[in-house]
Write a structure and sequence with these properties.
Elements lengths: L3 H12 L5 H8 L19 H16 L20 H15 L21 E2 L2 E3 L5 E3 L6 E6 L2 E7 L2 E4 L16 E6 L3 E6 L5 E4 L3 E6 L7 E12 L8 E5 L2 E5 L3 E6 L5 E8 L2 E5 L2 E5 L3 E6 L6 E4 L2 H4 L6 E8 H12 L2 E3 L8 E7 L4 H9 L5 E5 L2 E5 L1
Parallel strand pairs: 1-8, 6-8, 11-12, 21-24
Antiparallel strand pairs: 2-3, 2-7, 4-5, 5-6, 7-10, 8-9, 9-11, 10-11, 11-14, 12-13, 13-16, 14-15, 15-18, 16-17, 18-19, 20-22, 23-24
Helix pairs in contact: 3-4, 4-7
Amino acid sequence: MITKEEFLILYEKNLSGECTPEEKQLLEAHHDEITMPDDEWDKDLGNKKRLYNILNAKLHESMGSTSGNGGAIKRYVWVKWAAALLIFFSAAMLYLKLRPVTPAYNGLAKVKPAVILPGSNKAYLTMSNGTVITLNGARNGKLLAQSGTQVNKVKDGLLEYNGQKSGNPAAAADENAYNTMNVPRGGQYQLILSDGTKVWLNSASSLKYPVSFNGRERIVELTGEAYFEVVKNDAQPFKVRVNGITVQDLGTHFNVMGYSDEKEVKTTLLEGAVKLVNNGHEAFLKPGEQGMLNSQHNGFNVRDVDVDDVVAWKNGFFAFNNEDIQTIMRRISRWYDVDVVFPAQFKRKNFGGTISRFKDVDEVLNALELTGSIHFKIEGRRITVMP
């Protein structure tokens, strides 16, 4: 069994003609599916079975795989989520060519929009003295020495505090110095703290942290979303503060999502164990569990989740698991740095699937339009959602 991310990588590799015979066999052993839980087929798109057969044939043709029995195309076992990319992109291009313009949309003829590119590695480092450094414009190598710690830009998208003494007494004078990394909309960045803890910051997020950890606790403050791989230190617990919640652990891998425009703060544990604390309420998480705190309710709600979906953003994908379009569009808004507008009374629509975050926004929107239940209009950096 391969993961959906591995399948998507193999599929794109196959399209470029770079798959080895072994990789082709692995690709052929899996098939793909995308689910739209509230989807009702739009008859204007044509015969559903016929279009499905066209898509199915297109997959096999792209892999060049036929059986020896009269050239019949080999049947494949469908694996949930495995290759949503094919349905999203191959089907998108096919449907756009096949679908006629109906009278209902004659008055909404699309003007070809400017290309809206996906996010990239960009962030701003605000030092304790107020100095701001634009990281995506800085050269690789040593940036500065602060509080006895050397700060290096290792490569594009990665900043590291290595904890080495700078040799400059003035630089080590302020042992309580805090820096803040701000990642704007349309950005992402990775950070290695002075204790070796790794942090991935998603779009529209920030992390405030000490340049060096000198006290009995390692405390950082988060807004937005981040994935942490914490270095274990029993004598110095690691704590993340976000929207009134404290996430505490000794050495674990977990994801925290606490955007101000989301109703819930979600902490998802991949490895180890964490404790969640808020106004006298506590919850302990095991790997594979997610603790949610709703701003309108007291206490935590703990449930099992697909952790691969939760951290898909870190691996370069959007993963929608029966999520409503409003939630999906908030993610798209942050990553592509666009504004999204809904009509006054918009019916809830849920979608599921996996798609690369590194496609232009119109490709992502076209993929969602394949359900026939939703449409979009792009004007500049403004996206209007239409039923």
